[in-house]
Amino acid sequence: xxxxxxxxxxxxxxxxxxxxxxxxxxxxxxxxxxxxxxxxxxxxxxxxxxxxxxxxxxxxxxxxxxxxxxxxxxxxxxxxxxxxxxxxxxxxxxxxxxxxxxxxxxxxxxxxxxxxxxxxxxxxxxxxxxxxxxxxxxxxxxxxxxxxxxxxxxxxxxxxxxxxxxxxxxxxxxxxxxxxxxxxxxxxxxxxxxxxxxxxxxxxxxxxxxxxxxxxxxxxxxxxxxxxxxxxxxxxxxxxxxxxxxxxxxxxxxxxxxxxxxxxxxxxxxxxxxxxxxxxxxxxxxxxxxxxxxxxxxxxxxxxxxxxxxxxxxxxxxxxxxxxxxxxxxxxxxxx
Amino acid sequence: xxxxxxxxxxxxxxxxxxxxxxxxxxxxxxxxxxxxxxxxxxxxxxxxxxxxxxxxxxxxxxxxxxxxxxxxxxxxxxxxxxxxxxxxxxxxxxxxxxxxxxxxxxxxxxxxxxxxxxxxxxxxxxxxxxxxxxxxxxxxxxxxxxxxxxxxxxxxxxxxxxxxxxxxxxxxxxxxxxxxxxxxxxxxxxxxxxxxxxxxxxxxxxxxxxxxxxxxxxxxxxxxxxxxxxxxxxxxxxxxxxxxxxxxxxxxxxxxxxxxxxxxxxxxxxxxxxxxxxxx
Lengths: 336, 280
Ligand code: SF4
Hints:
The complex is a heterodimer.
Chain A: H1 5-8, E1 15-19, H2 26-33, E2 39-43, H3 46-50, H4 57-60, E3 66-69, E4 76-78, E5 91-94, E6 97-98, H5 109-112, E7 118-121, H6 124-135, E8 140-143, H7 159-168, E9 173-179, E10 196-201, H8 205-211, H9 218-231, E11 234-242, H10 248-262, E12 271-275, E13 277-279, H11 280-288, E14 301-303, E15 306-308, H12 311-326, E16 334-335
Parallel strand pairs in A: 1-2, 1-3, 3-7, 5-8, 8-9, 9-10, 10-11, 11-12, 12-16
Antiparallel strand pairs in A: 4-5, 6-7, 13-15, 14-15
Chain B: E1 2-6, H1 9-18, E2 22-23, E3 31-35, E4 38-42, H2 47-61, E5 68-77, E6 89-97, E7 103-104, E8 115-121, E9 138-140, H3 143-150, E10 159-167, H4 176-185, H5 187-203, H6 210-222, H7 227-244, H8 253-256, H9 263-279
């Protein structure tokens, strides 16, 4: 009998590659406890595995491995131009994890990283130290779920929880935890922190079905958000990236309406809106490695090194979604 | 194409018999055997030999994203009371070159039923006397050379290194007959691995079929499209294929016979085709 596609691949996290110098790190030991069956492979440096040449991101995605490593050098970066800074002067981002368990078709990670294996930097204490050094100079706004969906991993490695605890004791630090997951339950036991913003990315169900494989449905996300808001957390909504799909107006109209019929609009921190955009080289890489999503092959236009929809269409999409959101949210609280 | 690389003829024999491989005449100093899309090369002993033979077959018979290559050979296990027994096939997740300390990591994506381990490649047969020099589970004389060469052509998930435990640091105790016997006993596991390897690489082939490519080439010629537009046409076609799951023929048939007079006219047709590929 011929085999199914899923029979060919060994399960995710079947192998854990561990840098020699973090083998005894407490976070390493905690993570390993969750995967007693995994094959452990000792390595010198995470790049020996992560940066090998000719890796195929989409193929590896079918059986993702874990790499436990120590992050050396810079750990916290000033915000990139394309990201929204929500009016904060000192906007930074950091990545405790590289790559994601979800598989969004539009994700830039596919084009940015040579591998889809997941790297976890277990030396979180060094990240904290760097943030403290910045805080000594000025207040800091820090996006902690960059280049990954941090909360989606919370049951494997509690990075988000530790960031929340860290932030709670530092008034001049604000952290944003962005997610598509419904893992709110994993941090629910905490008292809501004033300087922690939980941000959910929302999409119409049709987009989720076609372009956000493995992520929770819109309803599930809304349920988590509602819970977080009821518990007293600051919650941000993000309709980003908006995608040009058949019937997009009806789809996004319904999505916005459903969002604000579930969530109390007056208690929402703010809303960010953006259309699909991706750095030119990343899109090129994704096309080269043979993405199996139609989205990637859309005739995007390149402006200033960034691919997006033709200008007129992009503006039309933003205008439309913004118009829908403005029925519920004050324009001052909408970020483009 | 599926490639097998063995150091010795005795290691190759069970595959030659099982897959009915026929000798390819007048190749090189290496013995090469083939049947359909399976090619086996006998490299001779040593990392360097293995690297040269691997490079030779991959260049001579070609490679693409559907290719797979396996190094299969005997190896010594370092620990007698360890996890490996004589005759065990071991899929290597780490290959160390003893001479320069470099380590290689093939992707282990394939579901398999072998034990796994690391192998260290030495320039000489490893006996008891050098046990303390070994950092891996197994020792061989080819793995690192094979991997280094294969990884110049293929992705890490297309490369497999399977070592069959023949001894416990007593290489002289392994007769040629024993080698053949040990390899023959692992045929069923290896056959499964080959099937899975082929299955994995078959999934990730080009979005467009050969027929699609022919059609697009013909259209680009007919419409006198520049290289940029012709590239855009291919991207649009992929987008259409993945979005609808339908073939290109049928949708674009009316353009295949078209002869245009000027580049300008070609551009107009391109815009019409673009519209069709985006919105049908
Ligand atoms: S959830 Fe975010 S990081 Fe994860 S795959 Fe989707 S876009 Fe990428």
